[in-house]
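U., I forgot to send this yesterday:
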Amino acid sequence: MELLTRERPALARRWMLLAASALAVSGLLAFGVVAARVPALARHLTDTELARRVLVVHVDLGVVVWFAALPVALFHLAAAGGRRAGRRAAVAPWLAAAGAVALGSGLIPGWGRPHTVNYVPLVDQPLFVAGLLLFAAGVVASYLDRALLPFGDSSRAPGGDDAGPVAATLRAQRGFLRLGAASTLLALAVLAVAYARLSVAGDVTAAYEQLLWGSGHVLQIATSAFVLVAWALLAAAGTGRPVAAGAAARVALGLLGVAALSVLPLLAAHPAGWRYHAGYAQLMRWGLFPGLVVFLGFVIVPHLRARRDPSSPAAARALRPLAASSLLMLAGLVYGALIRGSDLRIPGHYHATIGSATLAYMALTLLLLPRSTGADRADRPPRAPPSATARSAGWRSSTARGSSSSRPA
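Result:
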C-alpha cells in the first residue's frame, strides 16, 4: 500500500478506519466514565481529576474525531472517479491520526488541567492541544480541494448498472457534503477570530468556554448536513434505489445554507459578550431543524414509501438504524426547542442529537467499510481482475442493488 496515496478510495478507507478506531477507543473509555457513577465502584474511584480526564478524551474521540473523520471519507468517495486528490490530502490522514493519538496524552495524571467545556473539552497541556491542532490540520487539508467547489469536481460516474444506488445517491447529495465541508472550515475561522479577540483574565475554564462556543455551534451545521447524506445513503441501501436530489432536497440544502450564512454577522460579536453567546445558541435552536425536518419529511419518507422486500437482511441493516436515528434526531430537536434554562433538557437535547448522528454514522460505516477494504460476502461469485478504470471506481460498483458481483479493488 502506498504510504502517501492520492487515490480517493484509498484515502476514504484511511479516514473511515481512523473514525472507527476513534469511536472504539471512546467506547472503551466510556466504561470508565460510567464506573465513576456506579455507587459500588465510585467509592474506590476517588481521583475526580482522573475521571474528568477520561471524560475529556472520551468526548474528543467519540464526538470531535468520529464526527469529523467519517465525513472526510464521504467527501473523497463522492469525488472518486475524477481527479486524484491533492498532495495535501495524501498527508492529511496521517496528520489527523497523529493528532488523535496525541489526545491520549490527556489521560496522563498531573499533566495539565482538564477543562470540561462544551463541544471540545480539552486538557491544558501542549501535547493535547497539539493533537487537536494536528487533527484539525488534517481535516482542513482534505477539504481544501477542487471537489469543494461545484465547478471544480470533474468526477464522472461509471455508466449503466455499474453505479449502484448508494454511489448514485452520494453523487446526487454532493451539495450537502460541500456545505458540510464549508461549514467545518467556517467553524475553524470562527475559532480563529475568537482566539484573536479573547483575552484570558481570571477563570481559564470560562475563557475556553467562550473560545469554543461559537465554533462548536457552527460545527453543528456541518454535522446536520453530513447526517442528511448518511440518511440518504441508508435509504438507498435499504430500498435498492438512489435518492435523487429533487426540489425538496434543494430546499433543505438552502435552509441549512441560510443557517451557515447567519454565522457571518456574529463574527463581529465579542466572545465574552451576550450577543455572541445568545446569537449562536439561537442559531442552533432555530437554524437547524427546518432543513432536517424538510429533508426527512419530504425526501426520506416519500422515498421509503415505495415497495421493497421486507425480508431482505440488507434492507433491515440499513433501514432500522435509519428509523432509530431519525426518531432520536426529532426528539433532540424537540428538547432543543423547549430549552428555557440550565436543566435536564440541555443534556437531553445533546445526547439525543449526538446519538442520532452516531447511529447513522455507525450503520454507514458498516455499509461502506467492508466494501472499501475489499471484504466480500460469501454469496458473491468470483470474477476476473478488474481493469484500471474499474479499480478507480471499485467502491461504486460494490453498492449495486442486492448482492453485486462486482468486487472492489
